[in-house]
Design brief:
Strand order of the largest sheet of chain B: 1-4
Distance between the termini of chain B: 29 Å
Number of helices of chain B: 2
Radius of gyration of chain C: 21 Å
Helix content of chain B: 10-25%
Number of strands of chain B: 4
CATH topology of the largest domain in chain C: Rossmann fold
Structural class of chain B: alpha+beta
CATH class of one domain in chain B: Alpha Beta
Helix content of chain C: 40-55%
Distance between the termini of chain C: 52 Å
Strand content of chain B: 15-25%
Order of helices and strands of chain B: EHEEHE
Number of helices of chain C: 13
Shape of chain B: elongated
Strand order of the largest sheet of chain C: 3-2-4-5-7-6-13
CATH superfamily of the largest domain in chain C: Thiamin diphosphate (ThDP)-binding fold, Pyr/PP domains
CATH architecture of the largest domain in chain C: 3-Layer(aba) Sandwich
Chains: A alpha/beta (310), B alpha+beta (96), C alpha/beta (391)
Oligomer: heterotrimer
CATH topology of one domain in chain B: Alpha-Beta Plaits
């Protein structure tokens, strides 16, 4: 059903590309696709602050850049702080009439490591200050750039090089950190989850975030064929399965009110999602059952929150 | 044409190592990476644009006839377009 | 002549920042820098300065905010000490590599552990190689003056490097001194509005902070080093113009009674003032002692330093930080390197004194000079000790 919606609506998006080809991302990298869609959604009047990570490294090898918009990379953990600095610099320069007034969206982009782990402090500070910017977390569920090490966003049971499958311990032992919930807890005006497998939805959410006064947080699931050990051609399908199995539900939280964007009458079994990913190859029936139980519990909680909001 | 990194002298690098040419990675042929290449069967194409929107490498362009044509200079051969095409109009074939 | 007011040096520093029409101030409190940021927040809250005053959640973010705001072309300021400086040290290297003219005041305080809030130079010595222009100030007037000089030098299109101003925590930051304020019109002539060379703006999209492969990295570092070393001519020019404006002329190396001195003390920061009292006392005793004050720490003024010291027999270098397990205190190591290539050079004796704010009095200096002279007479060319440690 959703696929059909995409089929005809794609043509409504701008044909301009603010993100150039020739970048060095892997074949089938859904994170690069996510960045492309975000860039399409925002257009030329943006300034992007990017964390160290896959996207920074694949898009800006000196003297080249894949960015057709102003872009800055500083360090790993301070993207939100840099974005705060950019926004306030623009505010004060426009207020003092040193540059002409223009609506320029400030965007911070970071991976799951640069958001949920090392970048959490700066993010929390920026949210608390209420700085007017969009924070986009492209979540490929591990420290992919440095060689697939686990992060707090790595899902339970997944293989990573620092949560390997051994004789005594099998994969990631902790559950994925709920970053959108942390964002919501900061009482920011807009929080959303998105996935490039639903491109129109993603673009709409980014555009909405750009109109918000104050911080907005968008958490984008980015399928990584290299790290997830999946075939590159399946990156879109896997993103779709993540949503259809309830592993990564698509929802928005506007001023604390939840809205589920797509609700399925019956969630597909999580096995459908795992079977294409080498990082879950070792999962036992028991582990899969445990994961599914938790996924369904979280999904029900989400639905309840959405119902309350309505 | 931007010079490759091993040809720049220290005096030529802009102050602060900024890159002044936006989007100049478009000079880089990532098309050399592919082992498979997409082939379009125009009869099956419904002009939906999914191949274009799902390509992480911006390798599809709309031509005058309304078909989305792949730019093999950039295409890395990931196969997403072939997988997502709703009518099966794209097939991946081995590069010679 | 401007108004002469008695004020706490931290307040004077904040007033100078106000007079520079700074656009963005990011603040994270740490003793003994707190009075600077507190007064700045009052200035902004009272509407005396139109700036974005940011209370950030860590020093690392404080400097990161300045990087972001300088990148869009806003004049930015932050200040810190000790642990805060250590935390933001990663970003100091980045700011200078990206050639962003941030000005930072450091109220020098010792690094843990053990935790201590009192003054020495171990914090700034940990970022010696960060690529910033570094000044050391001796008294409140110098702190006030150097905020203007710092922005003037930093934002010069041929420099474009961040600048840090060291003032000793508590012993300088918290004392009340007479400060001669400079009229705003003079400051506005001395320090024009900031015109960045490159800025982030959609009208001209650029990429800042790209990563460099080994094939190009060395070239970027060479370019950065040349910029730092050649900034010295702009620093001298700024000091000259500042002197013409106020009558206070600064030099990279300042000397006190050094012309005919046989033994020269070498010191940085406010301890030099005490040392000059000791010089007076020793001169009264008929001893040929003088004082060298290093004002410009980076880029190190090799020529000026050599000129000042090569006619003496002994150098007594008083460090305010320990380079643990190394060849002595940081300043002594650099002094020795500076004169290494000279055919006729003085002997160097190194004391580390005043760690964590322990008082160093004129009589301490006299004792240090006496001991150094005796040791050098007896042939000790490797003299190094932490002065005053109870055995």
């Amino acid at each position: 059903m959703i696929e059909n919606l995409n089929v005809f609506a794609v043509r409504t998006l701008t044909q301009k590309e603010y993100f150039a080809p020739g970048h060095r991302a892997c074949q089938g990298c859904a994170e690069a696709l996510a960045v492309r869609l975000v860039a399409k959604a925002l257009g030329r009047n943006v300034i992007v602050a990017n964390a160290t990570g896959c996207m920074e490294v694949t898009t800006t090898p000196l003297p080249y850049t894949a960015w057709r918009v102003p872009w800055i990379h500083v360090a790993f953990e301070n993207t939100a702080a840099v974005a705060s600095g950019i926004k306030s610099g623009l505010n004060v320069l426009m207020r003092k009439k040193r540059i002409p007034y223009k609506k320029i969206t400030t965007v911070a982009m970071a991976g799951d490591g640069g958001t949920a782990d090392i970048g959490l402090q700066a993010l929390s500070g920026a949210f608390e200050r209420g700085d007017d910017f969009i924070y986009i977390c492209t979540d490929n569920e591990a420290y992919m750039n440095t060689g697939i090490q686990r992060s707090s966003s790595t899902p339970f049971g997944a293989f990573t090089t620092t949560s390997p499958v051994g004789k005594v311990q099998m994969g990631q032992l902790t559950w994925k950190k709920n970053m959108p919930a942390i964002a919501v807890a900061h009482n920011i005006p807009y929080v959303a989850t998105a996935c490039p497998s639903y491109p129109i939805d993603l673009v709409q959410k980014v555009k909405k975030a750009a109109e918000i006064h104050g911080p907005a947080y968008i958490h984008i699931l980015s399928v990584c064929p290299t790290g997830w050990r999946s075939a590159p051609e399946l990156s879109i399908k896997l993103g779709r399965l993540a949503v259809e199995t309830g592993v990564f539900p698509l929802y928005e939280v506007e001023r604390g009110r939840y809205r589920l964007n797509i609700d399925f009458p019956k969630l597909k079994p999580v096995k459908e999602y795992f079977k294409f990913q080498g990082r879950f190859r070792h999962l036992t029936e028991e582990m899969i059952k445990e994961i599914e139980k938790r996924v369904h519990e979280e999904y029900e909680k989400l639905k309840e929150k959405a119902l309350k909001g309505a | 044409m931007t010079k490759p990194e091993n040809e720049w002298t220290w005096k030529e690098i802009p102050v602060g190592n900024v890159v002044l040419e936006p989007g100049n990675t478009s000079q880089y042929r990532t098309g050399d990476w592919k082992a498979l290449r997409p082939v379009l069967n125009k009869e099956r194409c419904v002009h939906c644009g999914l191949c274009y929107i799902f390509c992480p490498d911006m390798s599809y362009q709309l031509d005058e006839e309304g078909y989305f044509i792949v730019d093999l200079f950039y295409c890395k051969g990931c196969g997403i377009c072939a997988k997502e095409c709703p009518t099966g109009a794209i097939t991946m074939v081995m590069e010679e | 002549m401007g108004k002469r007011v008695g004020m706490e040096v931290s307040i004077a520093a904040a007033e100078a920042v106000k007079q520079c029409h700074v656009d963005v101030i990011s603040a994270y409190p740490i003793t003994p820098q707190t009075h600077i940021v507190e007064h700045l927040s009052e200035i902004v809250a009272d509407g005396e300065l139109d700036a974005e005053f940011f209370c950030v959640e860590s020093e690392h973010s404080a400097l990161s905010v300045c990087v972001g705001s300088e990148a869009v072309g806003a004049r930015s300021f932050t200040c810190t000490s000790s642990q805060g400086l250590a935390l933001m040290s990663e970003i100091t290297y980045i700011a200078s590599g990206m050639r962003l003219p941030i000005v930072m005041a450091i109220a020098n305080r010792t690094l843990s552990s053990p935790l201590s809030i009192w003054n020495d130079h171990s914090d700034v010595m940990s970022i010696r190689d960060c690529g910033w222009i570094q000044f050391f100030t001796e008294n409140g007037q110098e702190v006030y003056d150097h905020i203007f000089i710092a922005y003037r030098v930093a934002e010069d299109k041929e420099v474009l490097l961040p600048v840090l101003i060291n003032l000793d925590g508590f012993t300088l930051s918290h004392v009340i001194e007479p400060i001669e304020l400079i009229e705003q019109e003079k400051i506005d002539r001395f320090l024009p509005p900031y015109q960045p060379l490159y800025r982030l703006h959609p009208d001209r999209p650029i990429t800042m902070g790209a990563f460099a492969l080994p094939a190009i990295f060395a070239e970027t570092k060479k370019a950065q080093e040349v910029a730092l070393i050649s900034s010295i001519s702009k620093i001298l020019q700024a000091w000259k113009e500042f002197g013409e404006m106020t009558g206070r002329y600064y030099q990279p190396i300042e000397t006190y009674q050094a012309e005919d001195a046989e033994t020269l003390m070498v010191a940085m920061g406010s301890i030099a003032e005490t040392a000059s009292t000791a010089v007076d006392q020793m001169r009264e005793q008929g001893r040929k002692v003088g004082l060298i004050k290093i004002r410009l720490w980076r880029p190190f003024p090799f020529d000026a330093f050599k000129k000042a010291v090569l006619n003496s027999k002994n150098l007594v270098v008083i460090d305010r930080a320990v380079s643990v397990g190394g060849p002595g205190g940081p300043v002594a190591s650099e002094v020795k390197s500076a004169i290494y290539g000279c055919e006729k050079r003085p002997s160097v004796y190194n004391f580390v004194a005043g760690l964590s704010g322990r008082d160093v009095t004129p009589s301490d200096f006299i004792k240090m000079v006496e001991k150094a002279e005796i040791e050098i007479e007896e042939g000790n060319q490797e003299g190094y000790e932490i002065y005053g440690v109870r055995e």
